Amino acid sequence: MLKKAIQFMIISAIGFAFLNAIVKYLGDFNAYQIVFFRSIGTLFFTIPLLLKYNISMLGNKRTLLILRGVVGVTSMALFFMSIKYLPIGSAVSLRYISPIFAAVFALFILKEKIKPVQWLFFLIAFSGVVVLKGFDTQIDTTGLLLVLASAFFSGLVFIIIRKIGADDHPIVVVNYFMLVALLAGGILCIPYWKTPVGWEWALLLSLGVFGYVGQLYMTKALQLAETNKAAPLKYIEVIFTMLIGLSWFGESYTLWSLLGIILIVIGLTLNTYLKTSK
Which residue range forms the structural domain that includes residue 50? Predict the structure, then answer.
């Protein structure tokens, strides 16, 4: 089962890595327009699935579902903006500190406790951010602020999904997210609209496909193996994204940037393992 879970997580990581790379490649397009096309590609999957299994699209906790969509779209748009300023491997690593924000939100909103050793793991991860910004000259301040804001809102998404709980089907949650993205991205991109040409249409529409594949196989992996064994594998996305950045975009990573990324991944992996181990 673990072997199959690893295979699924690798497929998921490849899907997300290609999504990140395409967003980087389409840097001439405004982030809101990319959000718009990202939603279209995924809705091609979610709406037919809801119809096939006769699941109500309206859901139950509609206020929270809409809020999840708004917060999720904000996080996604900020991340897409940050990719224009940062090496994609660094951007992905920095966005992954969202569990730190989620833990703090959970402390105050859900009244969950944070173990003392978790603060140590968070400190290790955050030290990676400090190393990246302090010693890696490729880390633009604007890009750093954008990706940290993205991680902040991503952490809030975790809390909202926890509040929704099992009252709504996961596909309903994703569908709401993509519908809000469709509306918000479609409206906000109007002043910045750039008509795609030729191959750009396929690339833009493929964003939703890669995003859906990444989410689907990550879910499958988590269903097959124990969370503390499968969840840390999601950081494989960082490796694939860095390799794409090196080979496709000619990005470079200094020893400092690699050290920063490693610290982030180690800190968050230890936190994930601690939370999910019995």
Answer: 2-276
Q: What is the pLDDT of residue 94?
A: 93
Residue 149: per-residue pLDDT: 97
**Distance between CA 32 and CA 211 in Å, rounded?**
16
CA 179 from chain center: how many Å? Answer: 17
Q: Which residue has the tokens 């809101």?
A: 32
Q: In 5-46, where do the E strands start and end?
A: none
pLDDT below 70 — which residues of the chain?
Answer: 1-2, 222-223, 225-232, 276-278
Distance, CA of 43 to CA of 60 (rounded, Å)? 19
Residue with tokens 């994703």: 174
pTM: 0.91
Domain count, the chain: 1
Length of the chain, please? 278
Please provide residue 61's backbone torsions phi and psi, each rounded to the nearest 5 degrees. Answer: -90, 75
Q: What would the two tokens of residue 128 be?
A: 């990676």
Q: Which residues contact 189 (CB under 8 A, 6 or more apart)?
A: 30, 32, 33, 35, 36
Distance CA 124, CA 32 (A): 33
CA distance 97 to 166: 25
CB 50 within 8 A of CB 175: yes
